[in-house]
Protein backbone atom coordinates (compact mmCIF):
# COMPACT_ATOMS: atom_id res chain seq x y z
CA UNK A 1 0.00 0.00 0.00
CA UNK A 2 1.27 3.39 -1.04
CA UNK A 3 -1.43 5.85 -0.10
CA UNK A 4 -1.02 9.34 -1.43
CA UNK A 5 -3.24 12.39 -1.27
CA UNK A 6 -3.90 13.58 -4.80
CA UNK A 7 -6.15 16.12 -6.49
CA UNK A 8 -7.81 15.82 -9.83
CA UNK A 9 -10.80 16.78 -11.86
CA UNK A 10 -12.58 16.97 -15.16
CA UNK A 11 -11.21 18.70 -18.25
CA UNK A 12 -12.90 22.10 -17.95
CA UNK A 13 -12.12 22.43 -14.24
CA UNK A 14 -15.66 22.71 -12.93
CA UNK A 15 -15.37 19.37 -11.14
CA UNK A 16 -12.47 19.07 -8.69
CA UNK A 17 -11.76 16.46 -6.05
CA UNK A 18 -9.14 15.42 -3.51
CA UNK A 19 -8.62 11.75 -2.72
CA UNK A 20 -6.39 9.35 -0.87
CA UNK A 21 -5.34 6.88 -3.57
CA UNK A 22 -3.00 3.95 -4.00
CA UNK A 23 -1.63 3.97 -7.55
CA UNK A 24 -0.60 0.34 -7.12
CA UNK A 25 -4.27 -0.66 -7.15
CA UNK A 26 -4.76 0.55 -10.69
CA UNK A 27 -7.23 -1.67 -12.53
CA UNK A 28 -8.89 -1.98 -15.87
CA UNK A 29 -12.30 -3.36 -16.80
CA UNK A 30 -13.69 -4.51 -20.14
CA UNK A 31 -17.42 -3.99 -19.48
CA UNK A 32 -19.49 -2.11 -22.03
CA UNK A 33 -19.00 1.31 -20.46
CA UNK A 34 -15.45 1.07 -19.04
CA UNK A 35 -14.13 -0.07 -22.41
CA UNK A 36 -15.57 3.00 -24.09
CA UNK A 37 -14.54 5.43 -21.34
CA UNK A 38 -11.02 4.06 -21.18
CA UNK A 39 -11.21 4.54 -17.43
CA UNK A 40 -8.36 3.37 -15.19
CA UNK A 41 -9.88 2.55 -11.82
CA UNK A 42 -8.53 3.45 -8.41
CA UNK A 43 -10.92 2.02 -5.82
CA UNK A 44 -11.21 4.09 -2.64
CA UNK A 45 -13.41 4.48 0.41
CA UNK A 46 -15.89 7.36 0.22
CA UNK A 47 -14.34 8.77 3.43
CA UNK A 48 -11.10 9.20 1.49
CA UNK A 49 -12.81 11.25 -1.18
CA UNK A 50 -13.71 14.92 -1.08
CA UNK A 51 -15.56 16.70 -3.84
CA UNK A 52 -14.03 20.18 -3.76
CA UNK A 53 -16.35 21.74 -6.31
CA UNK A 54 -18.62 20.94 -9.22
CA UNK A 55 -21.54 19.30 -7.47
CA UNK A 56 -23.99 21.08 -9.76
CA UNK A 57 -21.94 20.36 -12.86
CA UNK A 58 -22.33 16.60 -12.43
CA UNK A 59 -24.76 14.45 -14.35
CA UNK A 60 -25.34 10.84 -13.34
CA UNK A 61 -25.74 8.16 -15.98
CA UNK A 62 -27.16 4.77 -15.04
CA UNK A 63 -28.07 1.70 -17.05
CA UNK A 64 -28.79 -2.02 -16.58
CA UNK A 65 -29.24 -2.74 -12.87
CA UNK A 66 -28.90 0.98 -12.09
CA UNK A 67 -26.58 0.21 -9.16
CA UNK A 68 -23.50 1.95 -10.53
CA UNK A 69 -23.57 5.73 -10.63
CA UNK A 70 -21.59 6.98 -13.59
CA UNK A 71 -21.03 10.64 -12.90
CA UNK A 72 -19.62 12.99 -15.50
CA UNK A 73 -19.14 16.70 -15.98
CA UNK A 74 -22.13 18.02 -17.92
CA UNK A 75 -19.93 20.65 -19.52
CA UNK A 76 -16.82 18.79 -20.70
CA UNK A 77 -18.05 15.20 -20.45
CA UNK A 78 -15.18 13.78 -18.39
CA UNK A 79 -15.83 10.90 -16.01
CA UNK A 80 -13.51 11.80 -13.13
CA UNK A 81 -14.99 9.38 -10.57
CA UNK A 82 -18.00 7.12 -10.10
CA UNK A 83 -19.64 4.55 -7.82
CA UNK A 84 -19.14 1.03 -9.19
CA UNK A 85 -21.67 -1.77 -9.34
CA UNK A 86 -19.16 -4.30 -7.92
CA UNK A 87 -18.69 -2.29 -4.69
CA UNK A 88 -21.54 0.22 -4.43
CA UNK A 89 -20.55 1.29 -0.90
CA UNK A 90 -17.19 2.43 -2.23
CA UNK A 91 -16.11 4.50 -5.19
CA UNK A 92 -13.62 4.70 -7.97
CA UNK A 93 -11.43 7.56 -9.07
CA UNK A 94 -10.40 7.69 -12.71
CA UNK A 95 -6.59 7.73 -12.49
CA UNK A 96 -6.47 9.51 -15.84
CA UNK A 97 -8.14 12.52 -14.20
CA UNK A 98 -5.53 12.97 -11.44
CA UNK A 99 -3.35 16.06 -11.71
CA UNK A 100 0.16 15.44 -12.97
CA UNK A 101 -0.54 11.90 -14.14
CA UNK A 102 0.79 10.84 -17.50
CA UNK A 103 -2.02 8.62 -18.84
CA UNK A 104 -0.03 6.46 -21.27
CA UNK A 105 2.57 5.62 -18.61
CA UNK A 106 -0.05 4.22 -16.20
CA UNK A 107 0.23 0.46 -15.90
CA UNK A 108 -2.86 -1.28 -14.54
CA UNK A 109 -1.93 -4.30 -12.43
CA UNK A 110 -5.41 -5.73 -12.04
CA UNK A 111 -8.19 -6.65 -14.39
CA UNK A 112 -11.94 -7.02 -13.89
CA UNK A 113 -13.67 -9.05 -16.58
CA UNK A 114 -16.76 -6.87 -16.57
CA UNK A 115 -17.93 -8.26 -19.89
CA UNK A 116 -18.72 -11.40 -17.86
CA UNK A 117 -19.78 -9.45 -14.82
CA UNK A 118 -21.45 -12.12 -12.66
CA UNK A 119 -18.50 -14.47 -12.99
CA UNK A 120 -15.94 -11.68 -12.48
CA UNK A 121 -17.73 -10.57 -9.34
CA UNK A 122 -17.82 -14.15 -7.99
CA UNK A 123 -14.07 -14.45 -8.57
CA UNK A 124 -13.36 -11.07 -7.00
CA UNK A 125 -15.26 -12.05 -3.85
CA UNK A 126 -13.65 -15.51 -3.79
CA UNK A 127 -10.26 -13.74 -3.76
CA UNK A 128 -11.28 -12.02 -0.56
CA UNK A 129 -12.20 -8.63 -1.95
CA UNK A 130 -14.59 -6.29 -0.25
CA UNK A 131 -18.33 -7.09 -0.36
CA UNK A 132 -21.00 -4.42 -0.01
CA UNK A 133 -24.26 -5.00 1.84
CA UNK A 134 -26.77 -6.86 -0.34
CA UNK A 135 -29.16 -4.68 -2.30
CA UNK A 136 -27.25 -1.46 -1.75
CA UNK A 137 -27.55 1.05 -4.57
CA UNK A 138 -24.61 3.26 -5.47
CA UNK A 139 -27.07 6.16 -5.37
CA UNK A 140 -26.87 6.11 -1.56
CA UNK A 141 -23.08 6.37 -1.62
CA UNK A 142 -23.16 9.13 -4.22
CA UNK A 143 -25.73 11.07 -2.23
CA UNK A 144 -23.48 10.98 0.84
CA UNK A 145 -20.55 12.28 -1.18
CA UNK A 146 -22.61 15.08 -2.70
CA UNK A 147 -24.17 15.96 0.68
CA UNK A 148 -20.77 16.76 2.15
CA UNK A 149 -19.61 18.73 -0.90
CA UNK A 150 -19.81 22.52 -1.14
CA UNK A 151 -22.39 24.00 -3.56
ZN1 LIG B 1 -15.80 19.67 -16.92
Architecture overview:
It is a single chain. This protein has 151 residues and is of the alpha+beta class. The chain has a single domain (3-147), classed as Beta Complex (Metal Binding Protein, Guanine Nucleotide Exchange Factor, Chain A), CATH 2.170.150.70. Helices cover 17% and strands 28% of the residues. It contains three helices and ten strands, in the order E-E-E-H-E-E-E-E-E-E-E-H-H. Strands 1-2-5 form a three-stranded antiparallel sheet, with no helix packed on it. A hairpin with an 8-residue loop joins strand 8 and strand 9 (91-94). The longest helix has 10 residues, at 117-126. The protein is globular. The protein binds zinc ion (ZN). Zinc ion binds at residues 10-12, 14-15, 73, 75-76, 78.
List keywords for this structure.
single chain; 151 residues; alpha+beta; Metal Binding Protein, Guanine Nucleotide Exchange Factor, Chain A; three-stranded antiparallel sheet; 3 helices; 17% helix; 28% strand; binds zinc ion
Topology, please?
Blueprint: E1 3-9, E2 16-22, E3 27-29, H1 32-37, E4 41-44, E5 49-53, E6 58-61, E7 70-73, E8 81-82, E9 91-94, E10 110-112, H2 117-126, H3 138-147
Parallel strand pairs: 3-10
Antiparallel strand pairs: 1-2, 2-5, 4-9, 6-7, 8-9
This protein binds zinc ion (ZN).
Zinc ion binds at residues 10-12, 14-15, 73, 75-76, 78.
Amino acid sequence: MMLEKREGGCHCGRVRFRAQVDLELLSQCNCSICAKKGILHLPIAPEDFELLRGKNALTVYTFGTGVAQHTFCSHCGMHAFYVPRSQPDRMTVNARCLDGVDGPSLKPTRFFDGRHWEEAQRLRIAEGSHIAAAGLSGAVTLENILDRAPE
